[in-house]
Amino acid sequence: MAIVIVSCKLSFSFYYFLLLLIIIVSQAKAQQNFLYHFCINDNGNYTANSTYQNNLNILLSYLSTNTQINYGFYNFSHGQNTNKVYAIGLCRGDVKPDICRSCLNDARVLLTRLCPNQKEAIVWYDNCMLRYSNRSIFGIMEQFPRFYMSNVNNVTQADQFSLGNFDLITTLNEKAASSTDSRVKYATDNETDVSLNFITIYGLVQCTPDLSLRDCKRCLDAAYLEFQSCCNNKIGGRVFKPSCNIRYDTYLFYDRPLIVDTDETSQPQEKSKSSHTTTIAIVVPTVVVVLVLLTLIICICLRRNRHSMAGLNIEGEEEMTIAESLQFNFDIIRVATSDFSDSNKLGRGGFGIVYQGKLPNGQMIAVKRLSTNSDQGDVEFKNEVILVAKLQHRNLVRLLGFCLEGKERLLVYEFVPNKSLDYFIFDPTRKSQLNWEKRYTIIKGIARGILYLHEDSRLRIIHRDLKASNILLDDEMNPKISDFGLARLFVIGQTQGSTNRIVGTYGYMAPEYAMHGEFSVKSDVFSFGVLVLEIITAHKNSANICHGEDVEYLLTYAWRSWREGQAINIIDPSLSNFSVNEIMRCIHIGLLCIQENVVDRPTMASVALMLNSNSLALSIPSKPAYFMGGGIGRLPDMQQQVDNVSGTRSDESVNQISITDLYPR
Ligand SMILES: *[C@@H]1O[C@H](CO)[C@@H](O)[C@H](O)[C@H]1NC(C)=O
Ligand SMILES: *[C@@H]1O[C@H](CO)[C@@H](O)[C@H](O)[C@H]1NC(C)=O
Ligand SMILES: *[C@@H]1O[C@H](CO)[C@@H](O)[C@H](O)[C@H]1NC(C)=O
Ligand SMILES: *[C@@H]1O[C@H](CO)[C@@H](O)[C@H](O)[C@H]1NC(C)=O
Ligand SMILES: *[C@@H]1O[C@H](CO)[C@@H](O)[C@H](O)[C@H]1NC(C)=O
Ligand SMILES: *[C@@H]1O[C@H](CO)[C@@H](O)[C@H](O)[C@H]1NC(C)=O
After folding, report:
1. Ligand 1 site, residue 47, Cβ cutoff 6 A
2. Those residues with Cβ within 8 angstroms of residue 182's Cβ, 6 or more apart along the chain or in another chain
């Protein structure tokens, strides 16, 4: 663009124009507006020269050889079994087939270079999106990973511009989703705000056409909502998700849609072909005139643009910043939770009270109002939240964003409908809703979630407060771990080691952590073992078990029964129709996890392996922590030990409460 501006100031020499136009054209071609990419580690890596890589290369080469237009949507797979690769390519609805193909070609070259060994990756250009994976991605709505861009220019006071004044995007979402043409889900339009000062905004929304009407709408509505985290107060914004993307701005940034174009332009194209026969004498002067006119038009347009933009305080139309901001507006959250009303209270978790809320678009959320003051400044807090929000796994509750306002710090989570595991498993009647099959699924899901936190995510997260009330259940009773990563927000720079601030719940805490503040992935393994035994026995680890004369602590009782070959006795009597093998194996694994000796406890990776492979031999568990010999065991007096660690007094009962809130400072 700079070149064109300069050219206007130069003398009107034809050769200059020709030269400059060639430069401009070639530059425009070379620079295909690459926007952003993600290499996704969660689905594993492939090795160089592997079958997977070979399949990927073959698959991606289809993009350059396939001449089928398919209305800007490409969907391929190649290979067999575990080496099968799936890819989706999508061009913006107004992009012509040749530009689309060249964009996807650039994308495939760049993406395999940027992500040299990830099985799954995604890249966005201005004109297209390309993603591939080793799992089937066709017809599946996916909102993550996502990224945002916003116009650098802020809304000025004089503009009184607010996206909320326009219905444009919601109307477009409707229109694109319900597109009658199943090959395209794309819509653009403009709207002028006649009630204010006649500002016009332009909008563009698009889904991959393989989505159902409902999924497309869900994706677009969610994206629209995210404008307020990325682009609040900006005159333009974009949200990109694998399944959809959405954009608004105050200038016209799209062409007419492809479908309309193809019919209209086919005739002029044929005409120009037939004009090949006309003499060169006519063609050459025409080219010269066209070139001169074109340059003049470009110059005039630029001048005009700069003028009209000055009115709107725009300096560069395409200057966008990538803002992975997750910040919510406090007032929106306040309204969503009816001013944090008691009736919206879901409960009290570690670090603060949790409220249920409903965003203006109808999405349900859970808002945690942090009660503990953190040592961290706002910037560190934000950075930490952004890191935690990147942890995405189907067995983790998703962190959608945060909110900072004065002293208020809020965390906004996805809403998980079915309360938490403790609500079911420890209730004499509700526990019957969880048969063995469900409970086994829950155990395996929790294990996968923890494994992801410990090993597969980019950050190595030790949860430190795993317990039944932190395992939420979705509408199909699949487990989702909540409150992960929170310890990071409060105890700076500690991923492993020892702390004098204990974050956790008695009974679930490994002894080395409860007593000495030493934590590691193995302290989470301990808590997992406790959870497994609770799920199988339907008995709280904190409540003693009475049988006959004896009163016993759950862990002790389980271990003693197992040693005596009576482990079957500890199984929740209300369970029927279970596989004895599975359940005994789970008890065995649970006991391995709660061993007193930290080194003896398995890692989460071995736990996952043991759960998934019935043939794998298990070692013999040694004595669990808190084993007091004899028949009667109970928790040592932890109150005192924890007080020694932090010097703070607790006035709540020892076993049940989460002590995270006891250390304000
Ligand atoms: C994709 O690859 C990962 C890592 O190799 C593997 O765990 C996962 O099961 C694969 N997914 C499918 C659907 O094959
Ligand atoms: C995959 O490769 C990336 C870098 O190339 C690395 O950071 C990551 O840990 C690897 N993941 C696995 C599961 O090996
Ligand atoms: C992969 O194959 C190429 C060409 O056959 C070879 O040059 C390269 O060294 C191989 N790489 C590995 C890691 O085997
Ligand atoms: C896309 O891929 C899926 C799964 O491989 C297939 O069923 C479908 O027909 C494909 N659609 C197109 C338009 O190629
Ligand atoms: C827009 O506002 C933000 C915060 O108020 C400020 O940091 C930024 O510099 C402003 N940008 C422009 C282009 O004025
Ligand atoms: C803007 O909206 C008007 C009225 O709906 C429509 O006629 C016009 O074509 C639109 N322009 C663009 C560029 O979308």
Report:
1. no
2. 209
Domains 151-261 and 421-643 share a fold: no
**Entry pTM:** 0.46
Q: Which of 134, 138, 393, 455 to mutate to test the pocket of ligand 1 (most atoms within 8 A of CB)?
A: 134
Give catalytic status of residue 189 as yes or no.
no
Q: Please check whether residue 56 is in contact with residue 47, taking contact to mean a CB–CB distance below 8 angstroms.
A: no
Residues 6+ apart with CB under 8 A from 413: 365, 366, 367, 368, 397, 398, 399, 400, 482
Does domain 151-261 sit in CATH 3.30.430.20?
yes
Q: What integer pLDDT is reported at residue 292 of this predicted model?
A: 54
CB 247 within 8 Å of CB 253:
yes
Superfamily of domain covering 32-133: Gnk2 domain, C-X8-C-X2-C motif (3.30.430.20)
Q: Which atom of ligand 2 is nearest to the CA of 456?
A: 13
Which fold, 421-643?
Answer: Transferase(Phosphotransferase); domain 1 (1.10.510)
pLDDT in tens, 368-387: 988 766 556 777 777 778 77
Instruction: Write the CB contacts of 174 (distance below 8 Å, at least 6 apart in sequence).
Output: 217
CA of 140 to the centre of ligand 4 (A): 12
Q: Angle CA(631)–CA(594)–CA(421) in degrees, nearest 5?
A: 100
Q: What is the DSSP letter of 153?
A: P
Q: Is 356 helix (H, G, I), strand (E, B) or coil?
A: strand
Q: Mapped to the 3 state alphabet, what secondary structure does 256-294 carry?
A: CCHHHHHHHHHHHHHHHHHHHHCCHHHHHHHHHHHHHHH
| Residue 154 Cα to ligand 5 middle (Å) | 6
Give pLDDT tens digits for 29-40: 434 577 888 888
Burial class (CB within 10 angstroms; exposed 0-12, middle 13-18, buried 19+) of 96: middle
322: β partners:
149
Ligand 5, atom 13: closest residue by C-alpha: 153
Look at 104-108, 282-286, 347-351, 473-477 and tell me which has the smallest mean pLDDT.
282-286
Tokens describing residue 239 = 């949200």
The CATH homologous superfamily of the domain defined by 317-414: Phosphorylase Kinase; domain 1 (3.30.200.20)
SS (H, E, C) 87-106: EEEEECCCCCHHHHHHHHHH
pLDDT at residue number 548: 58
DSSP, collapsed to helix, strand or coil, labels residue 323 as: coil
Structure-token pair, residue 478? 């699949």
**Ligand 1 nearest-atom number relative to CA 84:** 14
- Radius of gyration for the alpha carbons in the chain, expressed in angstroms and rounded: 30
Residues with CB under 6 A from ligand 2: 41, 44-45, 117
Which of 152, 154, 315 most suits a substitution to test ligand 5, by most atoms within 8 Å of the C-beta? 154
B/e letters for 160-195, b = 16+ CB within 10 Å, e = fewer, are ebebeebebbeebbbebbebeeeebbbbbeebebee
